[in-house]
Amino acid sequence: MATTADIRTGLIIKLDNSLYSVVEFGQNKTARAAAKVWAKLKGVDNSRSIEHTWNSGDTIYPVRVEKKTFQFLYKDDSGYNFMDNETFEQIALPETMIDAPQFLKDGQEVSVSINTETDQHMSVELPDKIVMKVTYSEPGLKGDTATRTLKQATVETGATVNVPLFVNEGELIRVNTKTGDYIERVKE
């Protein structure tokens, strides 16, 4: 059985019959009272974000999660369709389970978290950084580089990303999928 000493970022635990992922955690120690362990939790099977506090040494119930590589195929009325790269089994998942659906490209590999106790698909994670092609961008003004001015650009999936003025239509850029921020221009 696991205790509060086993808490770490990314651990998925069962709490009040729901699954939560640990986003952040820490300890509060005082001179007279016993230590407390706190955690910020993000709902895996619901959209809630909560904070929870345990006494140090309390029992927690971690859920064993397996990550498998899937490939994004297409989007239709049933949801986003993915294929397991090993078994070629296809699954359809709702948009709420995907961390950044606006950056999904056809054929892109993603990581799907599966609850091994119930074989239920829990979430879909894109790679942290992906390369996208800019399909539309207003031309930047020459010489306007004294400040870090940004403009909006549309990428191949239809999402908009704020980019520096020197990024033009047709260029490849690297995007952080967690924040949606521009990272750098990529040479072909």
TrEMBL record:
All copies of domain Translation elongation factor P/YeiP central, residue ranges: 67-122
Keyword terms, alphabetized: Cytoplasm, Elongation factor, Protein biosynthesis
Gene Ontology BP annotations: peptide biosynthetic process
Pathway(s) the chain acts in: Protein biosynthesis; polypeptide chain elongation
Molecular function as annotated in GO: translation elongation factor activity
A GO cellular component annotation in the UniProt record: cytosol
InterPro entries (alphabetical): Elong-fact-P_C, NA-bd_OB-fold, Rib_uL2_dom2, Transl_elong_fac_P/YeiP, Transl_elong_KOW-like, Transl_elong_P/YeiP_cen, Transl_elong_P/YeiP_CS, Transl_elongation_fac_P
SUPFAM superfamilies: Nucleic acid-binding proteins, Translation proteins SH3-like domain
Domain of life: Bacteria
One Pfam entry name: Elong-fact-P_C
Residues covered by the Elongation factor P C-terminal domain: 130-185
Localisation per UniProt entry: Cytoplasm
Family listed: Belongs to the elongation factor P family.
Alphabetical list of HAMAP family matching this protein: EF_P
UniProt function note: Involved in peptide bond synthesis. Stimulates efficient translation and peptide-bond synthesis on native or reconstituted 70S ribosomes in vitro. Probably functions indirectly by altering the affinity of the ribosome for aminoacyl-tRNA, thus increasing their reactivity as acceptors for peptidyl transferase.
Protein known as: Elongation factor P
